[in-house]
Amino acid sequence: MTIYKALVNDHNKVKDLLVQLVALKEGDEEERTSLIAQIHDELIPHSRAEEAVFYNSIRAINTAQDLVWHGYEEHMEAEALLRTLQAADKIDVDSRKIAQKLKTVVEHHIREEEEKI
Q1: pLDDT value of residue 54
Q2: How far apart are CA 83 and CA 79, in angstroms?
Q3: DSSP letter, residue 27
Q4: Which of 38, 74, 81, 95 could bridge 102 with an S-S bond, Cβ 3.0-4.6 Å?
Q5: What is the mean pLDDT of each run of 10 residues along the chain (117 residues)?
Q6: What is the pLDDT of residues 33-53, one digit of tens each?
């Protein structure tokens, strides 16, 4: 399997988990907590590997530098939203709205990465 194919497989797993999270009905906290943990376990290691291997290998290409930094920014945004979801029971936030925003951010990032990089 190529690195690109592994990247796409990881993207698809995370997208599927996000679809499930956004589709949850109000009050299904046990499933919500489980999905957030699964998303964390897929997204964070994926982001770190992507940054270490993929981004580092293309950063030397002058035309790719802006895309790489933009990718880092999107990773940070997604991780901040994920942390907010993880703490949603302790702070006053609309977890459904945050979950939808996370889904939108991740899907946008995936689309850009798969089409432009």
Answers
A1: 84
A2: 6
A3: T
A4: 81
A5: 87 98 92 97 95 85 85 97 94 93 97 86
A6: 999 999 999 999 999 999 998
Q: Which amino acid is at 34?
A: S
The answer for residues whose C-beta is within 8 angstroms of residue 51's C-beta and 6 or more apart is 71, 72, 75
pLDDT for residue 79: 98
The dihedral built from the CA positions of residue 83, 85, 88 and 92, taken in this order, carries a sign that is positive
Q: Which residue has the tokens 């979801």?
A: 85
Separation CA 82–CA 99 (nearest Å): 8
- Closest among 109, 104, 102, 115 to 4, alpha carbons compared: 115
Residue type, 106: V
Question: How far, in Å, CA of 101 to CA of 104, rounded?
Answer: 5
Checking 106-111 for CB contacts under 8 A at 24+ apart, the result is 106/14, 106/15, 106/18, 106/43, 106/78, 107/15, 107/18, 108/74, 109/71, 109/74, 109/75, 109/78, 110/11, 110/14, 110/15
